[in-house]
């Protein structure tokens, strides 16, 4: 036994002899595919994408109309030179080594602001890739417009995650902006769908105020701007209370300058006014009371005071449509209050929908529904929404749901009226809540944060501010998609919402049908999905992307299309947010679905369904018109024969009758 332990110790020692640390740059050197450097064409597009998005961000922040030059030259059998030049604010020379030589360094980290870049990896990734494939430095020419132009060559010290300036010349002259030149191998260039040409074409659709010139080995293309107004700069935003996590609030409490928890909530979160903080006291009181009575014999009375919804009666009427297990689930949820409050609300919503469906559907349809009753409420809602409900009906249910739970004030009043809680007890609770909010943020504990975060989710707050986010706008998307000369076009910019962590986002969609819309397939037009995040086109990882899945989740056949795939349709989806939940550092796919960030998924789906309904109306109208046209054609074809018959009966002129029939149809 002892010997065995000693042997283990020896083994551990040798194991830890090998224990090393390595830098983030070293990590990405070994995993360059994670940054988008995999496949020759994709690698080329990634280089262009990283540098162009940086130029766009820099121009946007400095409120400059972007003018960007992209040049791709073939300089050897396998080697290409890529040059990107912008008219942005320029990079102060002392920052150049950090921008291009250091991973996880940038001006956009830890800020809640809508920008194309967010990780501080892109620029250094380009240098890393050039260094790994050709061993060459990047050449940077930059000036902030001071009359001094800096020409620098930079390499990366991978182990140290630092930039090395290997040459630095300063010359006099006027220039404002940044020019990056690099040499790369393991890349290729062509005009296929996933190449830089298509990338820039799409970016010009989503950034109509930019002028982009592409000089490639074939020719020079200019993507002119269609809008000359500089969009307002996106604003830095505060986190919204919805979806805020305990850990995040605790993190905020350690950084804030506020002296009390109450003032911290007001100054560090968006939409939390001092009035809402006073309301928050009532909510905390509600939760404390519920918690206090959880194990008491009066528990059922307490829940009855809290919910206006009589589950027992409900189960009596509709019970036979539901699953036994599910009824048990709800009972368990009630017993698990208050943590389960929001979950309980989801269940209530489901029951409201069930009630509506039971009244509306026939036995046959109900049978089909029964299977779905047994599934999770979210799945059921999705099913019901897809097949039987529209968005406005769901909104109505949600509103109704609010009236089911009593306001905390009414709840406390109901308890006092029943003599369940004395004034002294209430005072004691109220004081402890006031004391909690008076604490200094640094004294805030995990459980304090948990209490506050829980009630914040239950309170009403205005939607996150719209000032910070900058959508492309319905009109501008329309202008862009009109270039496809479609027969039907609908665009929609939705109001901002939040997803996990109170992160604001908004969805914009466009749906073009007919004309040049859709991808050219072998013998028919296929559905084309153009994905964008913060106005940047996403060309890769299509199938793993939540935006694609949201588009595919719509039952397009229900909206008049013959098939989900074979249709002359171009779908434009732009997700804007202060933090886009990418699936990887390569930033090509969005992590959303029914499990993850489902708010985004649902919002994309909803917006598309709104557009699809209008498309449906359009297609039906066109079909009807066509049918009428066909009927008219028949009648006209036989008008001569009718006229002959009628003429012999009535004795009137055949020509007159025929022209009357034709006129009638016009
Ligand atoms: N063309 C440019 N003009 C001005 N500043 C720039 C330019 N390119 C990069 N920068 C600065 O360098 C920083 C680092 O750029 P980098 O691409 O590495 O990261 P990012 O854009 O912040 O995030 P991401 O990794 O998501 O692209 C930027 O945050 C910006 O401050
Ligand atoms: Mg970047």
Describe the secondary structure blueprint for this structure.
Elements: H1 2-17, H2 24-30, H3 40-61, E1 67-74, E2 80-86, H4 93-101, H5 122-134, E3 138-144, E4 148-157, E5 162-172, E6 176-184, H6 196-206, E7 211-215, E8 220-223, H7 246-255, H8 261-268, H9 274-293, H10 299-306, H11 311-318, H12 324-335, H13 341-360, H14 363-373, H15 377-387, H16 391-404, H17 408-417, H18 423-438, H19 446-458, H20 474-482, E9 488-493, E10 497-499, E11 503-513, E12 519-520, E13 525-526, E14 528-533, E15 536-538, H21 546-553, E16 569-577, H22 598-650, H23 654-665
Parallel strand pairs: 1-7, 14-16
Antiparallel strand pairs: 1-2, 2-6, 3-4, 3-6, 4-5, 7-8, 9-11, 10-11, 11-16, 12-13, 14-15
Helix pairs in contact: 3-5, 4-5, 7-19, 9-17, 9-18, 9-19, 13-15, 13-16, 21-22, 22-23
Approximate shape: flat
Q: Describe the strand arrangement of the main beta sheet, using strand numbers.
A: 5-4-3-6-2-1-7-8
Biggest sheet statistics: 8 strands, mixed
Structural class: alpha+beta
Mean pLDDT value? 88
Number of domains: 3
Number of strands: 16
- Tally of separate helices: 23
State the end-to-end distance: 103 Å
Portion of residues in beta strands equals: 15-25%
Bound molecules: adenosine-5'-triphosphate, magnesium ion
Rg on CA atoms, Å: 32 Å
- The level of helicity is 40-55%
Q: Report low-confidence residues grouped into runs of 5 or more.
A: none
Domain Histidine kinase/HSP90-like ATPase: 39-160
Catalytic activity: ATP-dependent breakage, passage and rejoining of double-stranded DNA
Pfam families: HATPase_c (PF02518), Topo-VIb_trans (PF09239)
Keywords: ATP-binding, DNA-binding, Isomerase, Nucleotide-binding, Topoisomerase
